Amino acid sequence: MKLAMIGFGQAGGKILDKFIEYDKRTNAGIVRSAVAVNTAKADLMGLEHVPESNRVLIGQSRVKGHGVGADNELGAEIAEEDIDEVQGAIDNIPVHEVDAFLVLAGLGGGTGSGGSPVVAKHLKRIYTEPVYGLGVLPGGDEGGIYTLNAARSFQTFVREVDNLLVFDNDAWRKTGESVQGGYDEINEEIVTRFGILFGAGEVDEGGDVAESVVDSSEIINTLAGGGVSTVGYAAETVENESSSGGLLSKFTGGGQKQPEDTANTTNRITSLVRKAALGRLTLPCEIDGAERALLVTAGPPAFLNRKGIERGRKWLEEQTGSMEVRGGDYPVPGSDRVAAVVLLSGVTNVPRIKELQQIAIEAQENIDEIRQESEDNLQNLVEDDDDELEPLF
Q1: pTM of this prediction?
Q2: Domains (ranges, CATH) in the chain?
């Protein structure tokens, strides 16, 4: 699936950068075009793989390139005001060559949290291609303002995109891990999961053809109908004689010739499907009630088979209660791993979102109280007891 990606804000830009690096490393052919947008000049300068010509600094008249802090209302205002600058970069995207837009953003900060729904709304108004969001929820230890921002941004973002794919930092940060180290690892997890999902169907000509093809239309149909999506992933190392790289080191020559027992192949795939769906999802939820699902199995061709995929698909139908469950494989001849990726679309039983909203309501009340107390304290500080000083205006 070929995507035009727009990374909005610091987190969005870093994830976009990681996607481009992943695309180059694996030759997956996912990122057809990439644009990074930010109000902070330093964040744009820190990107390594996004071309400089595709880095857009907005809000210069308002924040002088220093960012908006955690003020996502200001982030939204600036995105609205400077949407023509963003569109200028988007105009260079060969839209006729992409299957969809993907807007990437962290939902807890200011620029991405406020600006990503604005640009998604703008894209949907102009283009006929689907517009998806990939939103990252902040960890619970990042503070009340970030939780409040995320709850408000989530509520807005999900309305403006054709589907919102969500990654919850709270489910992935390890105890005692540094913030920077944690984010680097989380970004790697994000691109691994979504890279396999969006990479399906982009097999090079002359390479191995999937037994059961997953192309961009399958992904689009699974994401159709809107709502929230989550992705599960599980992988297992196999002895591949022609292995010469990681999971998605995509080589097209010297196919895998090692024989593999059909029963073992089928059992491995069905086991991985269960682990992917019931393990750590990008957004933890109860999988029953998911409206649609898509299964992608990736790995050396000899370790993939139609029977395993079909069993995995039927199991997903039983677990989700959905009759819209698609499935297929993604041959990766040079890999030494077999992986299963499960996309669950239209999920509704998500405890984390309810918790986020409740904490945000409490945070909003506290913030209003703190602001009022701050205003009262300032008033007491500047007033003179005898009211003898005249203000300038």
Answers
A1: 0.87
A2: 3-199 (3.40.50.1440), 216-345 (3.30.1330.20)
